[in-house]
Write a structure and sequence with these properties.
The protein contains two helices and seven strands; from the N terminus they run βαβββαβββ. The protein is α/β, with parallel strands linked by helices and 125 residues long. It has a four-stranded mixed sheet, with helices on one face. A three-stranded mixed sheet has the order 1-3-2, covered by helices on one side.
């Protein structure tokens, strides 16, 4: 149970930077099975992708001029019991392996980058 001082504070949205809003929306909606906004205009600053079951946080795409080259301080972790299957699927959707990562000797995660270059992990549970 949450401590009373936390109240109704909860994680509701994960923001992802995007230079190409349509490409990012296509990738993340397909990757997570989220609904994609019907229309994203050339001047829209944000686009919200929602979990159809309403049980997981939304993904808010935020228009950016560029994606940082260095790892960003916040990224998405995806948990699954079939890591390799989902990695293959995400690569087919346009993700890229982050081959420059130095993994610890024993690890259950693989670092990928979305089509915009944002890092995320797929973790075996």
């Amino acid at each position: 149970m949450r401590p009373p001082e936390v109240g109704d504070l909860r994680l509701a949205t994960v923001c992802v930077n995007a230079t190409d809003m349509d490409r990012a929306a296509d990738f993340w909606s397909s990757a997570l099975g989220y609904s994609r906004p019907d229309r994203i205009g050339p001047h829209d600053q944000f686009a919200k992708l929602k979990d159809p079951d309403r049980t997981a946080p939304a993904v808010l795409l935020q228009r950016a001029r560029a994606i940082p080259a260095e790892p960003t301080p916040v990224h998405i972790d995806l948990y699954t019991s079939d890591r390799d299957k989902h990695i293959a699927r995400l690569l087919e959707l346009g993700a890229m392996r982050a081959d420059d990562w130095e993994y610890p000797e024993h690890h259950e995660f693989v670092v990928l980058r979305d089509p915009e270059g944002n890092e995320f992990c797929v973790i075996a549970v």
